[in-house]
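Q: Structure tokens for this one, please.
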Amino acid sequence: LKLSQRCDLRIDASLFYQLGSLETSLTILAASNVEPHRSQSLHPSRQPRLAQSLILAATLLCLAVSMACWFVYFTVYWPYRELFDETGRYFDAQNSVVYQEQSGLLIWPALALSILTILLGVAWRALRSASAPLN
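A: Here is the predicted structure, written as tokens:
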């Protein structure tokens, strides 16, 4: 065996009972420098974390909905903000559409979701850096 190869040694407990006392078996184990068997899974800090995945998914969902709200706000309200009459309506004769001044309220969900996206992104990054292995 080369020194770079890792030896996976599993010792049956019945073998130690056949050798003699518990003290003898513990002495043999201590002298052999055998590490306990570990599963071949990833290091705990490298395993994907459920919380990180959920926060990242929520961040991306908030980003998508926020972008949709901003798009609707800038296409439905922004071009006609100066054209509303005293009742809060504007009739576009070219497209035969009546625009309401109340559509300007779309800015609130757009702002709230944008702030939530930023906060979730910061939380995801903090969790990601906290679970990163230290070198």
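A few notes: The radius of gyration is 32 Å. The first helix runs from residue 13 to 19.
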